Structure formats: structure tokens, C-alpha cells
Amino acid sequence: ALPFSDEEAKEVSELMAGQSWLNLEATKKNFLRAIPQANMIHMATHSILDVQQPSQSALVFTKTRDSLDNLLRLSEVYHLEIDAEMLVLSACNTGYGPIVRGEGLNSLARAFHSAGVSSVMATLWGISDESSKKIMKLFYQFVKAGMTKDVALQKAQLEFLQNDRISSPSFRLPVYW
């Protein structure tokens, strides 16, 4: 369970005046239908990392009776055409994968970049759902204020680390975010 992902999706969509799909609406089908028109994409979900068979690494969507295939696999992402300015993968291990000789890092983040996304934000390890929600809200507030993505992320992380109202000292270790 990701108890804070619904809040994260709602807050991001409100800040950026976008759409969000929660619970039964958070399907692979809805995602694939929406991405051609999207300029910024934010995904707060689970991921599966398969270092033995990287093509099977995947993002997890809601499984319904109508959509039994709820995994968007790395191999599928390489075949997509996404003309988005930014994609945020607020899911564990999305920037991690094995290094393939002559190719480089084989990760979900790389696959989305290859699919056409100009800027991909990803994680290198398992992250706390609560910490992620807080940092992402700060990040989008700074982006909306006109900061570049890199500066906005840096400021969000520093604010998270320094503000006792946002985080506690025990959650400030990078392992949690």
C-alpha cells in the first residue's frame, strides 16, 4: 500500500492545474491514452525492478476486470512516443538498473528518456511514500514559482532537510527520500 500516493497525486494535479487518476482510474489504459497530450507527467506508484531481466522491470498500475495487464514494462516504454517536457517517477528504483556494455544504464528512467521525454526524474533506491509526497509538493511549488527543475529539486530537498514542520530528523537521511 502507498497511503500517501493519493494525496501526492491530488496535490500535484492541483498545483499544476492538471488531471489525476486515483485508485480504480489509475490504469495502464488511462495512462497510455493520456500521455500523447501531456506536457508534464507525474507518477506516484509502485515499480518492479528486475536486474536479471531488465526488460521486465515495470511500473504498476491498478488491476481491474477490464485491465488484467496492469504492468507497464520497460520493454514497452521503449516503443512509446512521448513528447513530454518532464516525467517524474515517484516510485522506487526507477533510475536504477544494470549497466549494459555499449548501452549504459538499463532503467525505467532511461527507457522514458529514449521514448522522447526531455527530462526524467527518478529514484535510485526504495523511498518513503510520505517523504516523497512532501518533497514532490515542495518541488512543484518551486517549479510553479518559475524555478528551473534542477534548482526546484535542490530547494525542495534542502527545505525538507531543514524544516522541522515538514520532516523529522529521523526521516532526513537520504535513504528515506
DSSP, total strands: 8
Q: Structural class given helices, strands, pairing?
A: alpha/beta
Shape: globular
The share of residues in helices is 25-40%
Please state roughly what percent of the residues sit in beta strands, choosing from under 5%, 5-15%, 15-25%, 25-35%, 35-45% or over 45%.
5-15%
Question: How are the strands ordered across the major sheet?
Answer: 1-5-8
How would you describe this protein?
The chain is of the alpha/beta class and 177 residues long. It has helices at residues 5-15, 28-34, 74-77, 108-114, 129-144, 149-162, and strands spanning 40-44, 46-48, 58-60, 71-73, 86-90, 99-100, 104-105, 119-121. It has a 3-stranded parallel beta sheet with strand order 1-5-8. Helix 1 (5-15) packs parallel to helix 5 and helix 5 crosses helix 6 (149-162). The longest helix has 16 residues, at 129-144. It is globular, with a radius of gyration of 16 Å. The model has no long low-confidence stretch (mean pLDDT 93).
